[in-house]
Amino acid sequence: MNIDQFLADPHFQLSTLTASINEAQSAPTLLASLGLFQEQGITTTTFQVEYDGEVLSLVDAAERGESVQGAKKANRKLATFSTVHLPAPFSIKADEITNVRAFGTQSEVQAVSQVVNQKLEQQRNRLVATRELMRAGAITGKVMAADGTVLHNIYDAFGISEPTATTYDPAAKKTKPLLSAAKSAAKKKLGQAVVTRWLLVCGPAFFDSFSEAADVTAYLQNRNGNSNDNIEDMTDGLSFHGVTAFSYDASVINEKGAEVKFIGDKDAYLVPVVPGLFIGRNAPADYTDTVGTVGLPFYAHVEAMGMKKGVRGEAQSNPFYLNTRPLAVTKFSIA
């Protein structure tokens, strides 16, 4: 078996593997499926974000000597962020592909390609989970790595006072006025933006308390004709006075075996769905063939091991997620 000849096959080229990993179908993650984030590629790994006291906005690149985006406000703050480099390496030892047919037959290339694709699928799933964790971080204001460490605290980066969580007492029977007050406050932060819907992203314990609160169950029973089947299919969530609440019990296990929760178990976040409120950016991979190109969500690359003992490769992603109006999201915590 000649590994160099294998890697020269079109199946194993950077462009082919990258196209394949981006086209691969996997179970959609919840936040990604909600369409909250407007994602696009960028050509660099860093970008600047400006905060004018209300809105976070990306600073457009300009030619040297050209004027930049209009008049600058005196109280603006500027910060430079880096996309997060997420490499997911793998290896395939020669022994794993020794039982394929003689070199040169199509079936052998297909067999090795299948092994590579299986490895890439595993790594892609890891990257998908990590990107979802970062989306949750954009909602909470603190983007975390898979080990639970905070990569970016948007409040600290711009000197924004992090709002105190609003206490929710299910026994108080004040769910509607509490949500109404939060919605009114959010609309003031959104200016002229039109809210198409409201989502309450809940930790499991918060959702249980919310869905079992007396005023919530009374509302649902009244709406459903006193039916005991109060909670709808949770793909749609529980609808209460224009707010769709759902349990978001997502987590990853870090390298130390500890669980990293995406959303605190007893917390919830009221999110207005507004175009451009949440953005995602994808930087190019750190390969010579991709530097300076528009970034894609995923990349894949393979090469021969030393002494031709097999193939090593990686899937990688270089994302960044941001809430452009962090004060428009309200955090609740159970009393």
Describe this structure in words.
The chain is α+β, with helices and mostly antiparallel strands and 335 residues long. The chain has two domains: 3-59 and 74-152 and 277-325, Super Roll (putative capsid protein of prophage fold), CATH 3.15.30; 162-274 and 327-334, capsid protein of prophage domain (capsid protein of prophage fold). Helix content is 28%, strand content 28%. The chain has eight helices and 19 strands. The protein has helices at 3-8, 14-23, 30-33, 106-140, 154-158, 175-190, 204-212, 214-223; strands spanning 37-41, 46-51, 56-58, 77-82, 86-93, 142-144, 150-153, 166-168, 197-202, 238-240, 243-247, 251-253, 259-261, 267-273, 278-282, 299-304, 310-317, 319-323, 330-334. The strands form six sheets. A six-stranded mixed beta sheet has the order 8-19-14-9-11-10. Strands 1-15-18 form a three-stranded mixed beta sheet. It has a three-stranded antiparallel beta sheet with strand order 3-2-4, with no helix packed on it. Strand 2 (46-51) and strand 3 form a beta hairpin. The longest helix is centred in the middle third of the chain and has 35 residues, at 106-140. The relative contact order is 0.23. Residues 67-72 have low confidence and may be disordered. Pfam families: Phage_cap_E. InterPro entries: Major_capsid_GpE. This is Major capsid protein E.
